[in-house]
Design a protein that fits this description.
2 copies of one chain form a homodimer.
Chain A lengths: L3 H13 L12 H4 L26 E3 L13 H4 L11 E2 L1 E3 L15 E6 L18 E2 L6 E3 L2 E6 L4 E7 L3 E8 L3 E8 L11 E8 L4 E8 L6 E9 L5 E6 L9 H4 L8 E4 L2 E9 L4 E9 L3 H11 L5 H16 L2 E4 L2 H13 L5 E2 L6 E3 L5 E3 L6 E2 L1 E2 H4 L3 H8 L1 H17 L8 E3 L2 E2 L8 H10 L7 H12 L7 H7 L12 H21 L3 H11 L6 E2 L4 E2 L27 H4 L7 H8 L2 H13 L18 E2 L2 E2 L18 H14 L16 H11 L1 E2 L7 E4 L6 E5 L5 E7 L7 E7 L2 E2 L4 E3 H5 L2 E8 L20
Parallel strand pairs in A: 33-37
Antiparallel strand pairs in A: 1-3, 2-5, 4-10, 6-7, 7-8, 8-9, 9-17, 10-16, 11-12, 11-15, 12-13, 13-17, 14-16, 18-32, 19-22, 20-21, 23-24, 24-25, 26-27, 28-29, 30-31, 31-36, 32-33, 34-35, 34-37
Helix pairs in contact in A: 7-20, 9-10, 10-11, 11-12, 11-14, 12-14, 14-15
Chain lengths: 784, 784
Amino acid sequence: MIDWKTLFITVFCASALLPSVARTQKKPPYESVDVFIGTREMGHTFPGAAIPFGMVQLSPDTGNPPFLKDNMYNPAVYRYCAGYQYDDPTIIGFSHTHFNGTGHSDLGDFLIMPTRRDRPLEPGVVGNPDSGFRSRFSHATERAAPGYYRVRLEDTDIDVELTASSRVGFHKYTFSDNGDSRIILDMIHSIYDYDGKVIWSSIRIENDRLVTGFRQTHGWGRTRYLYFALVFSKPFKRYGYMNNESAPYRGFWDKAMKQKDNFPEMTGRKVRAYFDFDTVAGESICLKLALSAVSTDGARQNLEAEIPHWDFEQTRREARLAWERELGKVEIDAEQSRRTIFYTALYHSLLSPIEYMDHNGRYRGIDQNIHRAEGFTHYTLFSLWDTYRALHPWLTILQPRRAGDMIRSMLAHYEQSVHRILPIWSFHANETWCMIGYHAVPVIVDAFIKGIDGFDAEKAFQAVVDSATHAPYSGLGNYMKIGYVPADGEFGENSASKTVEYAYDDWTISRLARALGRTREAEEFTRRAVNYRNLFDPGTGFIRARTTSGKWTEPFDPLKTSGQGYIEGNAWNYSLHIPQDIRGYIRLLGGDKVFIDRLDSLFRQKLPAESVAGSEDTAGAGMVGGYIHGNEPGHHIPYLYNYAGIPWKTQAIVRRVLAEMYSATPDGIAGNDDTGQMSAWYLFSAMGFYPVCPGSDQYVIGSPCLDRAVIHLENGRKFTMLARNLSAGNIYIQSAEMNGVPLARTYITHEEIIRGGNLVFHMSAKPNRNWASSRGASPYSLSD
Amino acid sequence: MIDWKTLFITVFCASALLPSVARTQKKPPYESVDVFIGTREMGHTFPGAAIPFGMVQLSPDTGNPPFLKDNMYNPAVYRYCAGYQYDDPTIIGFSHTHFNGTGHSDLGDFLIMPTRRDRPLEPGVVGNPDSGFRSRFSHATERAAPGYYRVRLEDTDIDVELTASSRVGFHKYTFSDNGDSRIILDMIHSIYDYDGKVIWSSIRIENDRLVTGFRQTHGWGRTRYLYFALVFSKPFKRYGYMNNESAPYRGFWDKAMKQKDNFPEMTGRKVRAYFDFDTVAGESICLKLALSAVSTDGARQNLEAEIPHWDFEQTRREARLAWERELGKVEIDAEQSRRTIFYTALYHSLLSPIEYMDHNGRYRGIDQNIHRAEGFTHYTLFSLWDTYRALHPWLTILQPRRAGDMIRSMLAHYEQSVHRILPIWSFHANETWCMIGYHAVPVIVDAFIKGIDGFDAEKAFQAVVDSATHAPYSGLGNYMKIGYVPADGEFGENSASKTVEYAYDDWTISRLARALGRTREAEEFTRRAVNYRNLFDPGTGFIRARTTSGKWTEPFDPLKTSGQGYIEGNAWNYSLHIPQDIRGYIRLLGGDKVFIDRLDSLFRQKLPAESVAGSEDTAGAGMVGGYIHGNEPGHHIPYLYNYAGIPWKTQAIVRRVLAEMYSATPDGIAGNDDTGQMSAWYLFSAMGFYPVCPGSDQYVIGSPCLDRAVIHLENGRKFTMLARNLSAGNIYIQSAEMNGVPLARTYITHEEIIRGGNLVFHMSAKPNRNWASSRGASPYSLSD
């Protein structure tokens, strides 16, 4: 029986809600992604092949200059966090692991390069590609889409195609000439490389098509193990390796045997293997390389489980389908360049965290023991200082099941950690201790508050409390004693930033404690939530570093980042990092007017060049006045006018950031993508709202830049945002409705999204100063 | 009901068979062991604590001079294969893994040393013990027995006691003074040490008593992993470490935190940790350190499973009971010094191979994957070139169950090896390729022929055939093509030794093939069994190296070892390495007389010093004329007169070797014990017989030096050897009986032993030239 009423509503209303369908010839989501966005300079994205949240992220590396010890931010090296720089003329090869958009790096594991036998068994140098197996290439022959990458290696006339499943990289090399073709497996190559980074590596030639091995590196990840199984579509006729070390193998065999040719074990710190084939013109050789963090046995099983066949196109198709499934969860109307930016941001928001376990559930824990993920998918790669802000909240909407598994993964880390604290910046069974705070805490509480399940709330509570009370961690002992991290104490560096971030994290714990009925902890952490006040200097109105005795550190320069007690931000930005209690800060400052002036000044000011020091992701491009969008601490700041009753100023600044900081070009991200945080900012903001304070259930309203956006939720419902009368100039909200009811507040709730509904904004070129300007319209603040 | 008949026979016959019981006040087996035998100079034994076949062999190390690359036989280093030299004045500490009696080495893992806080955190140098934590000691305070070791560290007034289970070392330290006591865990220390041997090490402080960690070394074992769990009986009050490296931890935490004190993760290549305690005078601190080759989790489980308590004396008692059980399997009558030699040899024969798996059956395979031993105990440490001769045959009698499991372990190695061949010289999931031959083959065939079960004969057959036909291995390709290893081909070094050893190994395969009805292979390997003939030079009567074209290599010096195509033996010795076909060789030589002259000359000749080069285990002491007992290739030679019908000459020479090459003193083994091979030679020969040709079921009769020996077999039966009228001068067999029936042959069979029975020798000072001198009395030869 046809339900005519539903059909009518569906068809009629859908078309009514889709005014732009007819007016642009738009590409579907998958085809709207431009994987090259962010590959030039600061974005630190990579263009290679991966599936959503896949462990294998198989991508060309165009450079890996060695970095020197204690010089992690060597700018020449920093450019290569993702291995690829758009302006480079040559490709070294194709490695299987990459970070998306990080500000420090590692990985680049198991580089493969097809070449010819007459090329040197060295990568060669940038200035002279003929000195090695690297090859010139051109963007003209480069074709890439989510899950697929193609390029022609000009020096050797080899066509390369790459695709991937979660744990397997699939390579297809087509050789133009008859003759001696060679495929190199480089165990030395690494991203953020230095002499000695490879602690050990090993290759076993299992038979004339199957190769297994592993390597251990001591890089950003202190003790990192990765195993592989590599199978060729055709037997190699000869193999061997070079070992750039003097004393490879202590044993007797060595004396007589030329181990470097056709000897099935290759071991050492500097091993580069080759496999030779006779090919005829036009012949393709495929290879599949599976990863495991557990063992070569695990890698072999992953290979068999994921890609048992040799049909490259099938795997490519499956990768595409996986992307279409995920990208299709948000349907938007906008002109194509916006669509490109949006879907590329969506693509980047689905590249990390990554699945980190074998097909059978076994994974390497932070204790370096092998564990089994029982009933969940184990993830790694938590850049939490970046991602607690918007990426994880984004995943609570789009990927609630995965969000729950990510929390289980963090809880496993907590249980396996010798410190018994949650991850800070972790990947591949390593903790890097990078950046500050204990921001797994807001991620977990935010998910709990938003009803994400699949994890044990009591265990989560223990984990967040333990993490927030681990005295040896980064000044926390002093913080707990005197209410702030003193600049002159242990871990006094960045003491002001630490204090405000701890206070925010603590506020989230108070929310969880209250929800679980833990009154004592709720009170304790509510007290700690206002610790930011201990660093408020009434004289300047800034959050400032102070010593144990209570003295403000001098000299004080609110424009400077370095040496002032802040990290990746200055006093202007960090003083606003009180997402849990903006109203409380406004009160300290002296009221709305002072606060608004403060914001106005921030967005208007011109920073002297030397003040930007320590904010390396900006280079000017990522800034609006003194607001640094290229770094995270201020990501919520554009939304703060709402708290002072003038949402139209937020609307203006959000639209400016959306317009200026993102573009559909290789340099289209105005700072490191930071494993998707920059992209998640865009995704939210383009739809008109943003999670200013994860741990609350509110998304604060800005100003959308999409005509329409429909989120297809995992629960089968959908949430639609419609921006009527939107244009480049129509940046102001005149009015809004939620499910047809006028909306006179500057936030919506998570519940309003996931139960499905329609949010309609009416846009105009002129601000409506009355809309949602009352005190009651403002988002949550602790001090309200 | 009392069975009076059995009782009568038991009591009466036993006393009748025990004429010496009353005449000496003898110590029981356990107390007869002197673990210091072999600890001076060449024996390379260690005096520390272990249980039979235990993985933990916890022993003091007195020296570990660094060795230089490509100089494995640096004599100063070679002395320290077992870590301990009897004449050394200081102890560096107590490490948990040692080889017994090897000629190359590794291990020395996880050295622990109790000391005081004011001692340097460096081991210091031999000439100046005060420069480090090493301490002077004296043999006067040293007490050791199987499974127990005690010493007083004089510089710090600390009493050390050690005991062990299979996977756990148990330490007890008693401090004389009040004050700051310190226990060092040295992750750098190693046997056969060199700068860079430790690839990586890691320590986790799990709590204030439990520490876990691991290290990887690149030594003789190319890629060796070992994990530990260490628990103290008392909480430490402070801990920390030094790291002799400039760049330990790439991460941010490092910048501010003094990670070297009380930071629970210690990682690097050169880590030495300390744990501090307040102690009062007379206080004891115990610690238990468990090993695992799998993981720290595995080590923790091993610790809990094996020694869950803190009763040092209980573990010591259990270790003693384990030894009493094994040592009691052979009951002997002899004067005490003989008993000491015999039971110490028995002790040494039970120290390797070692159990190499976790308590739950998981072990690291040669493929570096983790496997589970299903239904058997997995062993490692196979010094097969040494031990196929007598140690493994000895185990087929005394330890048939373990012998079967050792074969299963070797078959697992075969299956996991990328080469698909059996172990050569393997330990701890590493193949060293040390020495020559494929002597796992005779071990397996010998066990099969002798009815050892518990392994799959068909799989074993495949394994021995694959091992004997793996062309890339050590000249085997040429050997298969032309019937010998040519001196000028690949792996031409030691080509004569390789050829005769391959031919012998091949003969054993022919035996197995025949038993399994594999006619084709039986014929093929029977052909290969006489390949030694291809190197027989009729001009000199020696087995000689020859080139591919068939030319003998020149210059030829039958006295010299090095550069002649032999290893650890010269032409005189190696020409007799045809255990499978002594009669065939006699025929080639020209008959018994020439052969007997050859043997007489060998035992009479005086080697010029320069000819001994390459026979480093002798230093004169291990030789009878030109017969080198300190190295293995000749171990069967004393028994060869039997094949020419003059057993009395074998009797004389065997008794001479028994008397001259073994003594109850620290230098009581005339060469490396070679993981028990030297000891097994003694055990057999002292009882009057020896496995000249493993793979046959015969033991060839020599001349016993024990009045009586009773072997209590695993099948519940016993085999008794009685030497009537034995004395230092009465070395000749006048007659013999087996189970009361006159024995007129110079061998007995395995079957005769394991079905139980009595072998009686009647001894005299004069040879009986007629006893067993007929052709039919001679042991097996292929050419018979």
